[in-house]
Design brief:
Layout (H helix, E strand, L loop, with lengths): L2 E8 L3 H19 L3 E5 L4 H7 L5 H8 L3 E6 L12 H11 L4 E7 L12 H4 L3 E7 L11 E2 L4 E2 L6 H15 L5 E6 L5 H14 L6 E6 H10 L6 E4 L1 H12 L9 E5 L5 E5 L16 H13 L4 H16 L13 H20 L1
Parallel strand pairs: 1-2, 1-3, 3-12, 5-10, 8-9, 8-10
Antiparallel strand pairs: 4-5, 4-11, 6-7, 11-12
Helix pairs in contact: 1-10, 1-12, 6-7, 8-9, 10-11, 11-12
């Protein structure tokens, strides 16, 4: 049976890094003789321009029937005054597919340690995951309003939403070092008080795992002071948004960090954690590693292909170990040159595989 991957290149540098990922993906499809169809569709600002909506019905239907979704990046100043912004399309996509769990792995490989803004002895060896609840909280709460004199946003969580994301985090921790750090603001917020209470309850079902609580401001400091102490961080939507972006700078660039968003029984979405970077769009200098690693996550998590996943991740590291870097990491390689170097490594791995 053929599988289907929906590709949403989006805006800014999205199409450039997506092109890099598709070159690799199509080569792997050929090497591995997979039966996978790729459907490319408009999304975000590009969809506003071409179809009048950031999340057109055709795209919606394709995503609902996909086996996995690859997203580049969305947004840009061009659509700041649009009736519907590109970001509204992304929120609608998450809600439509019930993508409740966002996973951002933060791994500092030896080749990236020198790029970290932290001292090597602090950053080296950091390896943790931020699990962010993605469909509840202040981004979706009602009521919300904006006037010249007052603005209202509502942060709301149901018990079932909190339980679901905590079970996800503990299950993930069982495959790692079995430590869960639940981040909240339980000294101030009602939602956090409920979150902490439920975290204690859920932890009883995972006696092999350690649970600790940390206030969000303390967690933000600890990520910089001692990132190696973390294994699995789980938190609500807004806190997770901020903390995962902070954590993503530990390797020195947003351009190397992937993410996956998961539902209970539908397709998963894989995307870089960075934005559309409109200031460098079209210059051919965007770092494709985040998109390539997002492709690797998709192959491992949605298609059960650990070997191909390993090829991509090893190739990206090997290319950087060869001293080939894009501008964000102080190098001179173009997006195309970096991708070509990755492809050369992958073809070599494939040749060894077929011998």
């Amino acid at each position: 049976m053929s599988k289907k991957v929906v590709v949403l290149a989006g805006d800014g540098i999205g199409p450039e890094i997506m092109d890099a990922a598709l070159v690799v993906f199509r080569e792997l499809i050929k090497i591995k003789n997979w039966s996978i169809d790729i459907e490319e569709l408009n999304f975000g600002g590009a969809a506003i321009d071409h179809e009048g909506s950031p999340f057109p019905e055709k795209t919606r239907q394709a995503c609902e029937t996909a086996d996995a979704i690859l997203l580049g990046a969305i947004g840009g100043p061009k659509w700041d005054q649009a009736t519907e912004r590109p970001e509204q399309g992304l929120l609608a996509l998450r809600k439509q597919l019930n993508l409740y769990a966002n996973v951002r792995p933060i791994t500092i490989s030896p080749v990236l340690t020198k790029f970290s803004p932290l001292r090597p002895e602090i950053a080296s060896g950091a390896d943790f995951v931020v699990v962010r609840e993605l469909t509840g909280g202040i981004y979706f709460g009602e009521p919300r309003s904006l006037s010249e004199e007052e603005a209202i946003d509502t942060c709301s969580y149901q018990r079932s939403e909190i339980e679901r994301i905590l079970h996800f985090a503990f299950s993930l921790a069982r495959t790692r070092r079995k430590k869960v750090t639940s981040v909240d603001k339980a000294n101030v917020l009602a939602t956090s008080k409920l979150w902490r209470k439920i975290a204690e309850e859920v932890a009883q079902e995972y006696p092999d795992c350690q649970l600790e609580h940390q206030f969000v401001d303390s967690a933000a400091m600890s990520l910089i002071k001692e990132p190696r102490r973390f294994d699995v961080i789980v938190t609500e939507n807004l806190f997770g948004d901020v903390l995962s972006d902070e954590a993503s700078m530990i390797p020195g660039s947003l351009g190397v960090m992937p993410s996956g968003s998961y539902s209970e029984n539908g397709p998963s979405l894989y995307e870089p954690i960075h934005g559309s970077a409109p200031d460098i769009a079209g210059l051919g200098i965007a770092n494709p590693v985040s998109m390539l690693r997002s492709l690797a996550m998709m192959l491992r998590e949605s298609f059960g292909e650990p070997e191909a996943t390993g090829w991509i991740e090893e190739a990206c590291n090997a290319v950087m170990e060869d001293g080939i870097f894009t501008k964000d990491l102080g190098g001179t390689a173009s997006t195309q040159e970096f991708t070509d170097a990755v492809m050369e490594k992958i073809r070599r791995y494939a040749d060894e595989y077929t011998i």
